[in-house]
Write a structure and sequence with these properties.
heterodimer, A: alpha+beta, Rossmann fold, OB fold (Dihydrolipoamide Acetyltransferase, E2P), 2 domains, 20 strands, B: 553 residues, mainly alpha, two-stranded antiparallel ribbon, disordered N terminus
């Protein structure tokens, strides 16, 4: 049976060092939830607090209505996949998977049945009698997952499970993980620093930095309407341009470098005032034109043809370098040194206040906001 | 082009010459003596005979010693495991106050010669021992006798549990913390986890420690000689058989030695077989972090660890104490003095320089040979070098007194007479104590990728230069940790040396033994104290040089 996880005002301290302070989070039942952030942001610490391997210095952790703060890790009914898999090197694949079941003193038949089921599910049946050192990285990963799931845990925790695999296997395994999670329907908390991986597997993502959650939302929310500047740069690639919002005839006009300006209706009502801003424009949100002079004047410095898309590296007249992705056209690539004008897809771009702490465009969905209001 | 190839061949030849030289050395100083020992045992007066073997097995006086040795060694091994494994577990899992001191004392306990332990337990618990008297005067209760089986068991257990501790500590350090967490995650924690996960993960090491402890217990003869009284063990018989024979014919001693070799070989092969069932590799990305315990659990763990260690260390402290006691003749009297030390320096003053000269020379040879052998074994794995590897490990399992007897039999007649010389002492020490350094050097060399040497070669050094300038410095710590163990076992060596020494080549350990057997306990205590101080200084020097706080074997 899956559970929902509720974390209220969690605090983690190592000595006098506060790693996490007043962190609150709701993880829905059956959801694939990812903690994403650069190394040292506290994501693994938080995961290990849920698992019970790190002490909790403050706040409350709930599985459904059960407070688990002081519950023994062995009693939390958690399946965990470790970064290095932590497969027992002295046991066969089968015994590894059966280990948790044996601890529950289940009958032999049930253990066998359950073990078989997950060996089959993870497609490692043929390796059941092998010792772990004779398995490849991907196979070990499957054993770790089978072992974690075999005890039918309430929650599945995964700590950077793909970081030890090569790039190709990583892509393959994340599909496997997503697929298995879907079919088992178990509440899953996944830790990674790889934003692409997070986007690929998650229902919702919490982006963390310096022990604080910056934004909680679906991959789409995070990408299209990031809550602040950090999230916009951490999720996907983007170009940051300094600009200004100027009120003209009650309309908010965004002024970008090169005096390129346009009315931006998506600015929030209470942000409609004269102010300096930082604009985040993703590479695909530019429109390149050689003829239409309504845009930011720039020069093409380099281009890379990648089949579907062509990447341009462009220098603005004001000196900033900008990366642009355009769908490849049949005629030709714009030659290096050409002068171009950059328009933007106004409905897509994001605008942040001067210190980057908030997005001033409407449509930001941050599930964290409920804690701020309360 | 042609100069390149000849150069290459020449380098190959250097290592081949080294290979063959080492083979020749082992042939002369190990194989030849052992073969001669076998001949001595089965050829009497030029005729093949098994009469000495028949004599041995037909008399229960002799055969009983084998059973005795088995029983007492097995019991001692089991007790060391029961004491040592939890000690290592607590030490690695929990914060223990004064853990560095604890470890140093544990090592010290293992470093003194076993018979010194026996002798100091006699001082404490013997018929007129300190504690025996104290309890008798206080309560009128007579302590059970420490002589015989109980005494041997006590001394060997307290002497050998540190080996289990050191081995298992090393294994625990290799366990990744996430394995323990994974187990806890699946509902297995505490005591259940200790037996289901920790012990199985340490099994290969536990088996290795079991073998080592059993072999040491089985081969030790100083302890049963001193404290065993009526309980005769096998090594004592070897020793007696050897010394009861006159002249140069040691037929019966040789026969008993051959039996000893067979027995230890069987045990060794048995352990190898069991060990092959527990093969797996581990490495720890995140080693176990020590946890702080609270309340009564914390108290119990501290009582256990410090209690065991202090009991094991008490005899050594008492020996040091008695070395400063005033003596009158052979008896201790009230008051303190340095007389024992004065006597010690006067009587066998040679013992101290001998220990450093003979031991130092042996250690030097051990280090050089071990570096060469480890290179041959790891980097040039051919048949000749495999043979060297096996040969070098043989003395590890043969009782020391047998090695001594074999060397005497081989080198007390022409063409090569070495008996009574310092050379034969050095040879015996080298072949007996080199396995430690070889094993640790091999282990380290296996960790060093060949590519580092290749990089040096590609930058223009020769293979020999690459090895000595790049690889050997990288191996330094591994060599050092093996060498310290070799050194300490060299200076505390008794069982071989007692057969080979004379007054000119006497060492500290032998001096202790000689004085104990003469009943000059004060002088013996003085020598033992000097030996302990030397051991402590060696350890401290090692820790300083290797910049490590912990010693691993």
């Amino acid at each position: 049976m899956s559970v929902k996880i509720k974390i209220v005002d969690a605090v983690k301290r190592y000595g006098n060092n506060t790693i996490i302070s007043d962190l609150s989070l709701d993880i829905k039942e059956g959801e694939f939830f990812t903690l994403l952030g650069p190394s040292g942001c506290g994501k693994t610490t938080l995961l290990r607090m849920i698992a019970g391997f790190n002490s909790i210095e403050g706040g409350d952790f709930y599985f459904n209505d059960r407070r688990i703060n002081d519950m023994d890790p062995a009693k939390r009914n958690i399946g965990m996949v470790f970064q290095n898999y932590a497969i027992f090197p002295n046991m066969t694949v089968e015994n590894n998977v059966a280990f948790g079941l044996k601890n529950r003193k289940l009958s032999k038949d049930i253990i066998k049945q359950q073990t078989d089921k997950f060996l089959k599910l993870m497609q490692i049946e043929e390796y059941r009698d092998r010792m772990p050192d004779r398995l490849s990285g991907g196979q070990q990963q499957r054993v770790a997952l089978a072992r974690a799931l075999a005890i039918t845990p309430d929650v599945l925790l995964m700590d950077e499970p793909l970081s030890n695999l090569d790039a190709k296997l990583r892509v393959e395994m994340r599909t496997v993980i997503k697929h298995i999670q879907n079919s088992v329907g178990i509440t899953t908390v996944y830790v990674t620093h790889d934003q692409e991986e997070a986007m690929a597997v998650s229902d919702r993502i919490a982006v963390m930095k310096d022990g604080f959650i910056q934004h909680v939302g679906t991959p789409k929310d995070l990408y299209q309407r990031p809550a602040n500047l950090f999230v916009s740069t951490f999720i996907g690639r983007t170009n940051l341009l300094n600009g200004e919002v100027v009120m003209k005839d009650d309309k908010a006009v965004l002024v970008l470098p090169g005096k390129y300006e346009f009315v931006l209706d998506s600015i929030k009502e209470d942000e409609k005032k004269n102010q300096k801003v930082i604009t985040s424009i993703r590479p695909e949100e530019f429109v390149v034109s050689e003829t239409d002079t309504n845009g930011i004047p720039a020069k093409i410095e380099d281009s890379i043809f990648l089949g579907l898309n062509t990447h341009y590296f462009v220098r603005l007249e004001t000196g900033e370098e900008v990366e642009i992705i355009q769908e490849s056209k049949i005629d030709s690539i714009i030659p290096k040194g050409s002068s171009v004008y950059l328009g933007v897809k106004t409905e897509k771009i994001n605008v942040f206040n001067e210190d980057g702490s908030r997005n001033i465009v409407t449509g930001v969905k941050n599930d964290l906001d409920i804690y701020r209001k309360g | 082009m042609s100069t390149m190839t000849t150069k290459k061949n020449k380098k190959k030849d250097v290592w081949l010459v080294i290979s063959l030289s080492i083979l020749a050395v082992y042939g002369l100083f190990l194989i030849y003596p052992l073969v001669k020992l076998l001949f001595q045992a089965v050829y009497v007066g030029g005729k093949f005979t098994l009469e000495h073997f028949v004599e041995f097995f037909s008399r229960s006086y002799y055969t009983k010693t084998i059973t005795n040795s088995f029983v007492v060694s097995s019991c001692a091994t089991i007790i060391t495991l029961i004491i040592g494994i939890p000690l290592a577990y607590f030490y690695q899992m929990y914060e223990i106050k004064g853990k560095t001191a604890l470890q140093i004392i544990i090592i010290l306990c293992s470093m003194s010669a076993p018979f010194i332990g026996a002798y100091s337990w006699i001082l404490l618990l013997g018929r007129s021992g300190l504690i025996t008297q104290f309890i008798y005067n206080l309560t009128g209760f007579k302590m059970p006798s420490i002589y015989g089986f109980n005494g041997i068991l006590l001394v060997l257990s307290l002497q050998l549990f540190p080996l289990v501790f050191l081995y298992v500590s090393g294994a625990l350090k290799n366990i990744d913390n996430s394995l323990l967490e994974a187990s806890e995650n699946m509902g297995c924690s505490g005591v259940a986890r200790f037996f289901k996960v920790v012990i199985p993960l340490c099994m290969p090491t536990i088996l290795a420690a079991t073998l080592l402890v059993f072999m040491r217990a089985f081969a030790d003869f100083g302890t049963p000689l001193l404290i065993g009284e009526g309980y005769r063990t096998f090594p004592v018989i070897i020793y007696n058989a050897y010394f009861s024979e006159v002249g140069t014919n040691h037929a019966f001693g040789a026969a008993v030695s051959v039996i000893a070799i067979l027995i230890t070989a069987i045990i060794f092969l048995g352990q190898r077989f069991i060990n092959s069932k527990f093969q797996f590799t581990m490495n720890a990305l995140h080693p176990i972090e020590r946890k702080q315990l609270h309340g009564w659990k914390n108290l119990l763990v501290h009582i256990y660890c410090w209690g065991i260690v202090l009991i094991a260390f008490a005899p050594q402290v008492y020996v040091i104490y008695t070395s400063f006691q005033k003596t009158s003749g052979k008896l201790f009297v009230e008051g303190f003095s340095l007389d024992s030390y004065r006597e010690a320096f006067k009587n066998m003053g040679r013992a101290i320089p001998n220990t450093f000269l003979i031991g130092g020379l042996a250690l030097l040879i051990v280090i050089v040979l071990a570096i060469l052998i480890s290179y041959l074994v790891v980097r040039r794995n051919n048949t000749a070098n495999k043979v060297i590897d096996t040969l070098s490990m043989i003395p590890y399992i043969i009782p020391g007194s047998v090695v001594g007897i074999a060397l005497v039999i081989a080198f007390n007649t022409k063409p090569l007479i070495l008996t009574g010389s310092a050379a034969i002492m050095v040879i015996a020490l080298v072949i007996r104590r080199i396995p430690y350094t070889i094993r640790s050097s091999v282990a380290v060399l296996q960790q060093i990728p060949m590519s580092i040497e290749e990089a040096a070669i590609s930058l223009g050094s020769t293979k020999l230069q690459a090895f000595f300038k790049i690889t050997v410095p990288m191996m330094a710590n591994g060599i050092l940790s093996g060498a310290i163990l070799s050194w300490i076992t060299i200076i505390t060596e008794l069982s071989t040396a007692i057969i080979l020494y004379n007054l000119n080549t006497i060492t500290l350990t032998l001096a202790v033994y000689v004085n104990v057997s003469r009943g000059s306990y004060g002088i013996a205590a003085a020598y033992a104290t000097i030996l302990t101080v030397t051991t402590v200084l060696s350890l401290l020097l090692f820790m300083k040089v290797s910049k490590s706080k912990e010693i691993t074997f």
